[in-house]
């Protein structure tokens, strides 16, 4: 608990060590990947012009 309270310049979500860093990295990769896939899917099916 004391480790998360120290002001050593490390963001709080990375203070859990290597496991926290891996989870954070995996989350960011999944988020960016899924947003990119969603944007490609939306761009692939343009709206119909009436």
TrEMBL record:
Cellular localization per UniProt: Mitochondrion inner membrane
Alphabetical keyword list: Acetylation, Membrane, Mitochondrion, Mitochondrion inner membrane, Transmembrane, Transmembrane helix
InterPro entries noted in UniProt: Cyt_c_oxidase_su7a_sf, Cytc_oxidase_su7a_met
Coiled-coil spans in chain: none
Family the entry assigns: Belongs to the cytochrome c oxidase VIIa family.
Species for this entry: Catagonus wagneri
Membrane topology per record: Single-pass membrane protein
Keyword Transmembrane helix in annotation: yes
UniProt name for this protein: Cytochrome c oxidase subunit 7A2, mitochondrial
GO biological process: mitochondrial electron transport, cytochrome c to oxygen; mitochondrial respirasome assembly; regulation of oxidative phosphorylation
GO CC, alphabetical: mitochondrial inner membrane; respiratory chain complex IV
Transmembrane segment boundaries: 21-45
Main location, first listed in the record: mitochondrion
